[in-house]
Amino acid sequence: MLPRPDLCGKRGLDLLRDPLLNKGTAFTERERDVLGLRGLLPPRVHTLDEQVERVLATVRDKPSDLERYIYLTSLQDRNEVLFYKLLGDNLDELMPIVYTPTVGQACQRYSQIFRRARGVFVSPADRGRIREVLRNWPHHDVRIIVVTDGERILGLGDLGANGMGIPIGKLALYTACAGIHPRWCLPITIDAGTNNQALHDDPMYMGAKAPRLRGAPYDELVDELMSAAQELYPDVVLQLEDFGNANAFRLLHAYRDRTCVFDDDIQGTAAVALAGIYSSLRETGGKLAEQRFLFMGAGEAGIGIGDLIVDALVSGGMALAEARRRCWFFDSRGLVVRDREGLVAHKVPFAHDHPPERDFLAAVEALRPNAIIGVSATPRVFTEPVVRAMARLNQRPIIFALSNPTSKAECTAEEAYGWSDGRALYASGSPFAPVTLNGRRFVPGQGNNAYIFPGVGLGLICAGATRVTDEMFAASARTLASMVTAEDLAMGRIYPDLARVREISAAIAIAVAEVVFARGLTRRARPADLAADVHATMFDPRYEEYL
């Protein structure tokens, strides 16, 4: 059940300063009299819809997206119901402000634009007392934590403590997209230092000006945090976000069999990409087992997608070795091949026998892939010759430029459609505007993880899951793909309209919860009406009557 509002004796300015209780000018006449608010607010009582109209006009009047981000952050800090009503009603317009791409710029400037604490910072100085640090968070019924160490923020690299904008933004989407109550959400940043010299030289930087913690001291800090979170919040779901490649894979494997944890960069990205592939195959008429995939980038996102594709192929009856040979990777050193020296562990399963290739176009010509998937954070590497080669090799080439933010995309929507004569099945990580080509209007699909992770989190919470498995992400991918309509595909969009995201999240939550109950990964009994239980759990941003 959702938490009910509890004023805890608050009145007057204390009530107005609590973002979960504050209604601003929507407090009724009687509430103003009884709760000591008379004279502290302008005389007119407004409805929530009127407040939304006013703040939306203010957002649109701001001179830049960063200023819009700052304004929305301040709104969230003073009135969460109004913030989530505004965001939910205008998701297409405001998601790029609250999250990617603007959140990347906000993280780069986080120390300069910081206004008010939101979330918990943990540093090596807190060793031995992290439980006490977490107890300082005012809400004790935490159900979901997003945690980062700031080492690999989007495609921007090591931003240290400035990475706090990422867990804050992710949790805002959990609430807006899946109705997870804001009281249940806790953003955490591990300030383990930074190797970004620009931050060391910045007098305004708010994090520790120390080299990044490595080895046993780092692992001990993370382990204490994980243990403290599980002790204080027994039903918590932990999402790892924007860790560096070495730590991301290692931490996921270390904790996935011990607690309810997943890594959105690895597993969430994989699910949204696989859903896009399923949708694309509806247009090409092909089968997953017939496809060959070439990835630009072999980090968390790419390997995660490859692993989930392999799981899907194996589930369909293909041998593991053959399934892996359907996925090829190209990184900063060229094509990932078996005889390359110094391969890191997560690339080894996808290192195949092949002559080395240092040029991506040459790799495309040699391997003849049906799909190229960009997860490299290297802009414009899907060049005109590459896209034209894909269009020559495939009637409907699948081209996913998934790197964030927009400035890191491997190619733009206009380039993909233009260079393929309108035949590309295109998706990007950040939004691109519709493209008109030869009289046809294309609406590019955005392979946004917001289609996946909010619903996954909601399903895990509703089912009381004790573990997270790849099967749940496979179920999420199938569910998302099933919600793409013929009308979506006709306009070139391989994902559903983002305006349907709460409906999508509820469907994914049900699919995830079904896996949880089927595999016995919970101590709860399955409710008689699982769908009703999921919908009843979802937070609806509206004002409660306090009197």
Write up this protein.
With 547 residues, this protein is an alpha/beta fold. It has two domains: 47-259, Rossmann fold; 267-449, NAD(P)-binding Rossmann-like Domain (Rossmann fold, 3-Layer(aba) Sandwich), CATH 3.40.50.720. The chain is built from 24 helices and 14 strands. It has helices at residues 12-16, 29-34, 48-61, 65-78, 80-89, 91-98, 102-108, 110-113, 130-135, 165-178, 197-201, 215-232, 245-255, 264-284, 300-315, 320-324, 360-367, 384-393, 413-419, 453-463, 470-482, 486-490, 501-518, 530-537, and strands spanning 120-122, 144-148, 185-190, 237-240, 261-263, 293-296, 327-331, 334-335, 371-374, 398-401, 425-428, 435-437, 440-442, 445-446. The strands form three sheets. Strands 8-7-6-9-10-11-14 form a seven-stranded mixed β-sheet, sandwiched between helices. The chain has a five-stranded parallel β-sheet with strand order 1-3-2-4-5, with helices on both faces. Strands 12-13 form a two-stranded antiparallel sheet. Helix 17 (360-367) packs parallel to helix 18. It is globular. It starts with 11 loop residues before the first helix and ends in a 10-residue tail after the last helix. The relative contact order is 0.10.
Summarize the structure.
This protein has helices at 12-16, 29-34, 48-61, 65-78, 80-89, 91-98, 102-108, 110-113, 130-135, 165-178, 197-201, 215-232, 245-255, 264-284, 300-315, 320-324, 360-367, 384-393, 413-419, 453-463, 470-482, 486-490, 501-518, 530-537; strands at 120-122, 144-148, 185-190, 237-240, 261-263, 293-296, 327-331, 334-335, 371-374, 398-401, 425-428, 435-437, 440-442, 445-446. The chain is an alpha/beta fold and 547 residues long. The protein has a seven-stranded mixed sheet, with helices on both faces. A five-stranded parallel sheet has the order 1-3-2-4-5, with helices on both faces. Strands 12-13 form a two-stranded antiparallel ribbon.
